[in-house]
Amino acid sequence: MKYKILEELKKQKESYVSGQKLSVILNVSRTAIWKHIVELRNEGYSIAAVSRKGYKLNNSNDILNMYELSGIQNIRYYESVSSTNDIAKQLAVSGSSEWTVVVADNQTAGKGRLGRKWITTPKKGIWMSILLKPCIPPWEIQLMTLAASCAVALALKDTVNVDAGIKWPNDVLIEGKKVCGILLEMNSEADRINHIVAGIGINFSHEMHDFPKELANTATSVKISLNNNGRDIEGIKRYDIIKAVIKRMKELYEQIQIGNAQPVLDGWRKYNVTLGKNVKVIYHNKEYTGIATELTNEGNLTVLCEDGIKRTISSGEVSVRGLMNYI
Ligand code: ADP
To answer: Which of 16, 20, 164, 301 is the one with CA 20 to 30 A from 311?
Structure first.
């Protein structure tokens, strides 16, 4: 019942609906309506109640729960998990289907690449993992890594109209600061992939003070970047970004599945902020500087190093001068 009330309030958008009208539409008493409004408020919905006018849902509500996410197939919502990748991996092992999507409002042990930590601020971001079972050989996983970053850049353009950049291989940046980190984890045999879990963390409504000191110069959120440009996130919902990421990921994924990596490579090259830049590369435990010259068709990065040698890097550490505080 409470979600039926919510639906009615959503229909009215910014105007009030009287308790009388709600009780007629839903055929329950006005006291029952009030009781459910209190429950909705306890779930975090901001609902104004004014005597003689009725109830109004505040447009700034950005709540994730099974009701809000029900339009997405195979979605699993959790208030708090260790990491959404961990849950998606468990679901994979217990036979969940491809495109199962895990979304959580909090992670207590968010993970980054190379054993690093991902800082999760509860309810302020999109912490999600997508379970994939692609029919591609394991060595093509790099294309999936790039696809995930393209999907996020495209989704941010679709929903928020911001121009994001991609730092090789898959950090998504706005105005040179990291708004999204991506971690792909693969379970494979020598020549086939059993499943991939694509973990995506997008900082959404963080204020600068939400980030710990060590991220103060390198991290941003959708809200911070919009505010910097005189805009606001009011009315933009995490739900819409989640949906857009899944849609864009599906488009790119389907092409990779039929052997067409072009849309991913084109998309990545369009949004990238790495090519043509001076970079520092850690390659086989040695450090080199050079210019990032090319993205190969396999998704690797070619760097012309200062010692005159062109190195092709498939994973590991690449820092881009002038970005992420690397001078
Ligand atoms: P990398 O940046 O090396 O590709 P990851 O994408 O795996 O690494 O993310 C982990 C790194 O991202 C951490 O070492 C930290 O520097 C940074 N980081 C962690 N949490 C956040 C966050 N919420 N927003 C922006 N950057 C973060």
So the answer is: 164
